[in-house]
Design a protein that fits this description.
Layout (H helix, E strand, L loop, with lengths): L2 H6 L6 H14 L10 H28 L3 E3 L1 H12 L6 H13 L14 H5 L8 H4 L1 H7 L7 H28 L3 H32 L9 E2 L8 H7 L5 H6 L15 H11 L3 E4 L12 E2 L14 H13 L3 H7 L5 H14 L7 H7 L5 H26 L1
The structure holds zinc ion (2 copies).
One zinc ion (ZN) binds next to helix 3 and helix 5.
Amino acid sequence: MSTFSAARKGRRFQPLTFLALLGIHLAAGLAFFPWFFSWPGLILAVLLIWLTASHGASATYHRMLSHRAWQPVPWLRTVLLFWAALCLEMGPINWAATHRLHHRESDHEDDPHSPLVSFLWSHMLWLFFDQPRLVDKAELRKLVPDLIDDRELRFFQRWFGLMWVGFAALTYLAGYLAVGGGMPGVQLGLSLVVWGSLLRTVLVWHNTWFVNSVTHLFGYRNFNTEDESRNLWWVSVVTFGEGWHNNHHAIAGTANYGMKWWEFDPTWWSIRTFQLLGWVQRANLAPHLRPQELVRDFPGKYSAKSPRLLRRPERLALSLLRRLGNSPAALVKALHSRRSNVREAAALALGNLGASAQEAAEALRQALTDRSLRVQEAALKALRSIEAAIDSAPSSSTG
Ligand SMILES: [Zn+2]
Ligand SMILES: [Zn+2]
C-alpha cells in the first residue's frame, strides 16, 4: 500500500469541501481584473490578513484553543473568535481537535497532514477527506474535552461559515452606500468582496497550509524532536510567527514561538500588547536560546500511537532493496550516486542487510564524510547495525 492510500485509509472524499475550495479559489481570481480593484479593497485585504491570520488562526485557534498557551479576558476572546471565523478554516472545536491530533501523531500514520505522504497532501489534499476521529463524537470529545461543551465555541463552530458570508455581504453594502449607489457603488462593493473576502481568504489559507507542509520539510532545527518539524523564516513572515514550527513542536504550550532573539513573532507582539493593556489573564513564556547553542535533543512528551510514516529516503531504501536484491555490491554503487537521497537510501538499505553487508563497511566509512549530513547519519546508523548484527551472530548460534 502506498503512503498516500495508507493516509487516506477510512477517510471519505468530501465533494462539497472540494467544490467550495475550488469555487473560492476561482472567484479570488477576479482580483486579476482591474475592474475589481480599488484602494479601499486593498487596504481592507491587508488589514484583514493581519487580523484573521495573526489574531484569528494563530493567536486564537492555535495558541489559545489548541494549546491553551494563553487566556484573554472574555470580551476579547469573542472578538478574536470572530476574526478566526473569518479565516473560513473549520470551526474552533474541529480546528483545535485536528491540530491536537497532529501534535500527538506528528509524521505518523494518524497525523492528519504529514508531508511524508506527499507535499500536496499535507498542503491541501488532506482537507478534501473527512476525519473519522472528528466525525465520531466520542473520539472528538477525547481530543478536546475542555472545548467541546463550551457554549461560545459551539456557537462559532456552528455559524462560522455564515459569519464569513455575512461579513462579505456587509462590506459590499458599505462599499455600495459609501459612493451613493449606482454602478460606482456596485464596483466598489464588489472590490471590497473580491479583495477583502475572496482573495484575502485564499492567501490566509495557503499561509496556514505552509505551516503544515513546508515547515515539516525545510528549514533548521533548534530541537531534535521526534517529528520532522523545522523553523523557516519566510513562513514566519507570511504567518506572523508560526514558521518557528520546530520550536513549537518541542515546547508546544507557550504563547511565543521565537526562542532566539532574531526569531521574530508578530502574533506574540499582539498578545504582549493585549497583556500590557490588561486584557490577558495568563500567558506562558518560551525559554530563551542563545544563538550559539547547538541542536538540543528533545524526544518530546507524547509518543505517537500509530506507525511512523517513512521519509522519502527510507521508502527509496526499501525499493532499492527490492530492486537490487540483497546485493551489497549494487548498493555500494548506489552509495556513490549523484543524488544525496539515493546515497542516503543506499546507506539505510545496507544497514538493513546487517552482517551480510560487512563487505560494504569500507564504503560506508567513506560515506561518513559525505557532504550531506543526512547521508552521514544514515551511514553511521548502517555501520552500527552491521556491527550489532556481527556481534549478535555467534551468541545466537550458541544460544
Ligand atoms: Zn501547534
Ligand atoms: Zn507540525
